[in-house]
Specification:
Layout lengths: L3 H14 L5 E6 L5 E3 L5 H5 L4 E7 L2 E6 L4 E5 L4 E6 L9 E7 L4 E6 L5 E5 L22 H8 L6 H5 L10 H11 L12 H26 L29 E5 L2 E5 L12
Parallel strand pairs: 2-9
Antiparallel strand pairs: 1-7, 3-4, 4-5, 5-9, 6-8, 7-8, 10-11
Helix pairs in contact: 1-6, 5-6
Bound molecules: zinc ion (ZN).
Zinc ion binds next to loops.
């Protein structure tokens, strides 16, 4: 599932390669993920528009078009963007192909078809967008703001961390990495974390994301459709030794989500494993 670091690297790539190009033709291969929030035909409206800017907000990617329209991507679990030449083989379940005037194509594929692509002239109309908390890397999200916002949410800290209404951008994989980095059990109640633990959590959020973005920038290159996760320290490494203490990493699955953690480095968990 693309999370903040993946999308931040894709954003940087698109800024370099797609901003400034004009969409020449629009091929809707399968319309099911497309939500046109404007009147008229999606492909007709989008064709001949110039890409003026690209932004990321949480796990949304936004292409600003010169007309004032926005093409908004919410890739959810398996949405992928592919930047390639027209002759390159299409990925399975390709939904949308934008031919650019530089000779490349920007394609959207989605194995589980859960993502969405919106075309709108107002971001307020994109479902879920208005309810997002601040982006996890927003410089105005200081430690004080982070702590203040956290008070509004109840429950296990991992579940709070992945709520996009709290802060936008953290998903299941990076929540495990951040909590391991901070030495906090994913099952601790957020309201019971000490000031010191909250500071560690806030610092871990930045450290993990900054390092992941740097790693991905080096490794992803033009292959923005590939998700690289092999450098993660604990997520989905159940049974392997913890890189910090050597204890076997524990793994539990709840609500189809895998949580990986070290019961030695992240004490206080009620789960036996
Ligand atoms: Zn450990």
């Amino acid at each position: 599932m693309p999370e903040l670091p993946d999308l931040e690297v894709i954003r940087g790539f698109l800024e370099e390669h797609v901003v400034g190009t004009t969409i020449v033709t629009v091929e809707v291969v399968r319309p099911t993920v497309i939500r046109n929030l404007l009147a008229g035909d999606f492909a007709t409206r989008l064709a001949s528009q110039r890409v003026a800017a690209v932004h990321r907000y949480g796990k949304f990617l936004l292409l600003d078009l010169a007309s004032g329209d926005h093409l908004v991507l919410n890739p959810m679990l398996t949405g992928r963007l592919q930047y390639c030449l027209p002759d390159d083989r299409r990925l399975p379940r390709t939904y949308l192909v934008l031919a650019l005037d530089d000779g490349h194509e920007l394609r959207y594929s989605d194995e589980r078809s859960m993502g969405k692509i919106y075309l709108t002239d107002s971001l307020d109309r994109v479902p879920g967008f208005g309810e997002l908390g601040p982006d996890a890397l927003d410089p105005t999200l200081t430690l004080e703001v982070f702590k203040e916002r956290l008070r509004r949410f109840r429950g296990e800290i991992k579940r709070v961390l992945i709520r996009q209404e709290f802060i936008a951008g953290v998903g299941n994989a990076y929540a495990d990495e951040i909590l391991w980095q901070a030495g906090i059990s994913p099952f601790r109640k957020s309201s019971q974390l000490s000031d010191n633990e909250l500071q560690r959590l806030y610092e871990a959020l930045h450290l993990v994301f900054d390092q992941a973005i740097a790693t991905l920038r080096q490794r992803v290159g033009a292959d923005i459709h590939i998700e690289i996760r092999d450098f993660l320290q604990v997520h989905r490494r159940g049974g392997q030794p913890c890189p910090r203490c050597g204890t076997r990493i524990s793994e539990v699955t709840a609500q189809q989500r895998i949580t990986s953690f070290c019961r030695h480095c992240q004490p206080g968990s009620l789960v036996k494993n």
